[in-house]
Amino acid sequence: MKKTLFIGGIKSGKSLNAQNYILASSLQKPIYLATTEFIDKELQERINAHKQSRMDSFETIEEPLKLYNKILECKSAILVECVSMWINNMLYHGFTFADMKEELEKILELDKTVVFVLNDIGSGVIPDNALAREFVDISGKLSQLIASKCDEVYHTIAGISTRIK
Fold first, then answer.
1. I want to staple 4 with a disulfide (CB 3.0 to 4.6 A). Which of 86, 152, 157, 158 is the partner?
2. Any known ligand binding at 13?
3. Residue 83: which of 63, 61, 69 has the closest Cα?
4. 14 assigned ligand-binding residue
């Protein structure tokens, strides 16, 4: 059982490459663990488009907060899409960095195959508000944690994923 991270900018192709990766390496139909909460109509349209692109290749489970509990129940490989939206949800619902770190550490210790998708937001400018800065800081720290525990890490640019670990 191994852990893998696909990290890259928004619309870099990391999600599609992560999907293809887990489909190619799974013996059973993998689980697509969707973390996005429905916020508005435009986001709902994006979610619907993602669902259409997956078709019947995955069993989809939606869970915006308690990833460990859901992953614990899964019997096949899991694609967590995406950690960035999960961080957003956790902040919105009042969870702390310590809560998020604890949740991820428990997942990373499980004897399960998990592929994580995460936006690389550390190459931008420092945000102009405290909440956005907190999100960037947490995302950076958690990406380091995930990458340090993963067997493989892929960085994606322009649809090309390059293995960096």
1. 152
2. yes
3. 63
4. yes
Q: Is 155 a catalytic residue?
A: no
Degrees to nearest 5, angle at CA 6 with 89 and 109: 70
Residue 52 assigned as binding residue: yes
Report the number of distinct structural domains present in the chain.
Answer: 1
Print the domain residue range for 68: 3-163
Residues belonging to the chain: 165
**CATH number of the domain bearing residue 106:** 3.40.50.300
Rounded to the nearest 10 degrees, how much is the dihedral formed by the CA atoms of 132, 65, 68, 77? Answer: -90
| Closest C-alpha among 96, 34, 37 to residue 67 | 34
Q: Are strands 31-34 and 59-62 parallel, antiparallel or unpaired?
A: parallel
Instruction: pLDDT band for 127, please (50, 70, 90 cuts).
Output: confident
User: Whose CA is closest to 83, among 38, 36, 48, 14?
Assistant: 36
Q: Dump pLDDT digits (tens) for 58-87.
A: 998 989 999 999 999 999 999 999 999 999
Q: Is the pTM of this model over 0.90?
A: yes
